[in-house]
Amino acid sequence: MSKDNGIYILQLKNECRVLHAKNIENVLMDKTNPWCGPFVADWLVEYFEKAPVYGCITDAVAAAAELSDTAGALEHGMKLLLDLSHTWEEYENMAEEDS
């Protein structure tokens, strides 16, 4: 049975967030270049709102590596979701507008 999980680093204009999750494809908008934003705002906020926040990518990658040590088997390994055009607050606003 598929685990469909991974460690995901979200890098935005103002911060990074890290989490271990399943079914991350709900966040992805562009299927031709899925790991670059923009992302589906309501799903992104739902997945990452409680994830630890980091001020730089170096700290986020270190946290992701540490998380991967305890996560067990990862079907998708570690992935970077990149959107340097939007802030977390902008995604929260977009999610509110969509609901």
Would you spell out the secondary-structure blueprint of this structure?
Layout: E1 5-12, E2 16-22, H1 41-48, E3 53-54, H2 57-70, E4 78-83, H3 88-98
Parallel strand pairs: 1-4
Antiparallel strand pairs: 1-2, 2-3
Helix pairs in contact: 1-3
Largest sheet: 4 strands, mixed
Order of helices and strands: EEHEHEH
| Percent in helix | 25-40%
> Any idea what the radius of gyration is?
13 Å
Low-confidence stretches: none
Helix tally equals: 3
**Order of the strands making up the biggest sheet:** 3-2-1-4
Mean pLDDT: 91
Strand content: 15-25%
Our measurement of the CA-to-CA distance between the termini, rounded to an integer number of angstroms, reads 33 Å
Question: Which structural class is indicated by helix and strand composition?
Answer: alpha+beta
Q: Care to count the β-strands?
A: 4
What sort of overall outline do the alpha carbons produce when their principal axes are compared? globular
Q: How many structural domains are formed by the residues?
A: 1
